[in-house]
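PT: before anyone asks, these are the final sequences, not the draft ones from last week. 281 residues across everything. Please model them as a single complex and drop the result in this thread when it's through.
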Amino acid sequence: MAHSLSEACTPLKSEYDSCFNAWFEGYLEPAVSTTPEQRTKFSNQKAAEYEEKCGKIWEKYRSCVQKAVKDKQLDALLDQARQENPLKEPPNDSSTNKASSS
Amino acid sequence: MHYFSQLFNYEHPWSHVVIGMWHKYPNPHCTHVVTVDVVDRSIDSRTGIIRTERILGCKQKAPAWIVRFFGGSEDAFVREISFVNPATQEATITSVNLSLSQFATCYESIKYAPAPNGHTSFSQTAEIQARMALWRSAADKLEGWLVQRFEQNAHLGKVGFSDVLRSMWEAKEQQHAHS
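LR: through. Structure below.
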């Protein structure tokens, strides 16, 4: 697995990535084949399972990486990019997710 | 503005490609990507859509003039947001540069969707654009500075030449008066 931008976070990142990947591999195929009626129930259950399995290590890794982002002075750049294009929803079309070119 | 696009198929089913997405780096073919970090992730408990925001750290081998001119460093960072929608079997990845973003933006969009015969289509577009407003304001500042320098030099030129003329002709006139 790739390293974290801070070596101090790499062990936490590896642990988190392994947890997420294991969960995701068990999630994706059943998520594709679930029926529309069952989707909400299934998603709910899987989201809870992810939280239970990976929630703790995610919190640890996240606080480590947040500090690293600040230390590398990427926080202002990240905030600016988030403001220009929050991307909270999937883009409908590649032409609709342009940043305002100011 | 410059565009780039490409479209091809991977000979793997969509779910394999999407699981593989998280294992793309490190990659001996893409050694420029050296760090990958998840900075935000959410799983929509209604739709099952997974949104992931990552920061990729790259070693850019920028030409020396770019580093000199823009003051960049060897490390360049990219913000990447991906959505995996199992209901529609669509995975989209949008990336934008964080480094040097005050000068230019490189927007990349990738989409993975199922294709016939259990393959997966990959479509990629990128738009590279310099921030014109910034160039304009920088150009305005440069012009303003040049005008100021020109005015100063023009003034000094006038003062300087007046001195030359005065001392030259005053001396001649004095000589003339003495002779």
